Amino acid sequence: MASRRRRRLKRRTRRKLQGWGAVALLLAVVWVAGHWTVMWPVLVTVLAAVVVGAAGWMLVRAHRLAVGRDREWWALEEARTRELSMAEVDSLSWQDFETYVAGLCRRDGCTKVVVSGKSGDLGADVIGYLADGRKLVIQCKKYAPARGVGSQDMQRFVGTARPEHGADVALFVTTGRTFTSAALGLALRQDVVAIHRDLLGSWVNGAHLESLIPLNGSGGGNRRRPPS
Fold this sequence. Notes:
Layout: H1 2-34, H2 36-90, H3 94-107, E1 111-115, E2 126-129, E3 135-141, E4 148-149, H4 151-161, E5 169-174, E6 178-179, H5 181-189, E7 192-195, H6 197-204, H7 209-212
Parallel strand pairs: 3-5, 4-6, 5-7
Antiparallel strand pairs: 1-2, 2-3
């Protein structure tokens, strides 16, 4: 019973509000009609402002949608281009992959680039020097595209890159899609540059090594000139 009474009260209140609203609207119309000579410029101005505002909002919204679609298209296109380039890399053996990475280093101005190409290299598959003289030590992992790099791989590289090889810049490069969160966290804490598949695809497509170094690790270190 109480709920029915509340519903009736709500209906009555709604009807009263609608009635008062209709009366107020009628009075407003009568008042405007009686003062039309004064009010019509104001009404025209307000209407014009509403039309201009609506048109501007529609233009801004259309622009934002177009920009969003354009960015999405470019992102998809870049991803597609990276994958096309990575198809050749995927066909390489792990030995050829190390040689290929060394070639990318030379392309970007690295000097005294050496490929280990053997087991027992203690994680230093490629060693060279950046153009500014810092020693570069690279671990290469030729993995399936869907595979991720785990923390154990990263731990082994962290344990040798600087203590054993004196790296100023330690680079972990893989054809795998990702680094696990534990591996990436370790890389960031230990100042290791983690280059996953997408970043490698950008490198293959012409991105300079120096532009990749800050992305997944600071890549800092003391500057060191290569021995004569």
